[in-house]
Amino acid sequence: MVAAQGHLVDEDGAPLVFQRAVETLEAARTRAEVELAQIPAPKRLAPHAYAVEASVVVEGEELADGRLVLLHDPAGQDTWHGTFRVVTLARAELEPEMAADPLLPDVCWSWLTGALAARGAAYSEPSGTVSCSSSHHFGALADRAASTEIEVRASWTPADTSAGFPDMAAHLVAWCELLCTSAGLPPALGEGGGDGVVSLPNRRGPR
C-alpha cells in the first residue's frame, strides 16, 4: 500500500475505501433466480468503477436483465453530493396491455425505492427514467406476438457507513429485487416490502 492524495491505494491505484465497497458488493447474497457476473466497467464516468450484469432466469428462460455500476471519485462530483455513485439499468418484457397502464412508470419506480428502503440501503440524490417500448411484427414476422419492454434507468448516491464507504451489498440486493419484480416473480420467502410498493398482476405469457 502507498499513499496517494491522502488515500491508501493498492498496486492498481484504487483507493482502499473503493476496494472495501467492492468487497461488500461481491459478498452480497441474492436469490437463486439471479445470475450475476462482473463485466468491464466504463472508464469515462469516474476514476474508479466496478460493474456487474445480472439476469433473472427461471426454468432456462431469461425474464429480465440489467447492469449495475459502482463509481468512485475521491474528489467527488457536484451532482453526486458524495464520492460514490450507483448507476443502474433494468429491463424486462411485459404483456402489451400493461404498457397502457398510466400508473406503470410510478409503480416501477416504487419497486426500486421500496426495495432500497426494505433493505436499509440509505441513499440520496436519486434520479432516473422509466420507459416503455412496444414492438409489432409484420410480413414474415407477423405470426409473432406484439411485445413491450419496460426499462428503468436509475442512479443514486449511496450513503457511507461509519467505516467511510457504502455497504454495497444492500444496494445490490435491492436492485436485484427490482429485476425480479419487473420479471413478475413473487417476493422470495423472507423478503421484506417497502411501504407504497405496488405489484402488478402476472403479466408474462409464452414467448
Keywords:
single chain; alpha+beta; disordered C terminus; 6-stranded antiparallel beta sheet; two-stranded antiparallel sheet; elongated; 207 residues; disordered N terminus
Explain what you see:
It comes from Streptomyces silvisoli. InterPro entries: DUF3000 (IPR021555). With 207 residues, the chain is α+β, with helices and mostly antiparallel strands. It has one domain. Helices cover 20% and strands 38% of the residues. The protein contains 3 helices and 8 strands, in the order E-E-H-E-E-E-E-H-E-E-H. The strands form 2 sheets. It has a 6-stranded antiparallel β-sheet, covered by helices on one side. Helix 1 (16-26) packs across helix 3 and helix 2 packs antiparallel against helix 3. The longest helix has 15 residues, at 104-118. The protein is elongated, with a radius of gyration of 18 Å. It starts with a strand and ends in a 25-residue tail after the last helix. Residues 1-11 and 192-207 have low confidence and may be disordered.
Poorly predicted spans? 1-11, 192-207
Rg on CA atoms, Å: 18 Å
Shape: elongated
Strands across the major sheet, in which order? Answer: 3-4-5-6-8-7
Number of domains: 1
Strand content: 35-45%
What is the overall pLDDT average? 82
* Major beta sheet summary: 6 strands, antiparallel
The first-to-last residue Cα distance is 53 Å
Structural class: alpha+beta
Order of helices and strands: EEHEEEEHEEH
Helix content: 10-25%
Counted beta strands: 8
Number of helices: 3
Protein name: DUF3000 domain-containing protein
InterPro entries: DUF3000
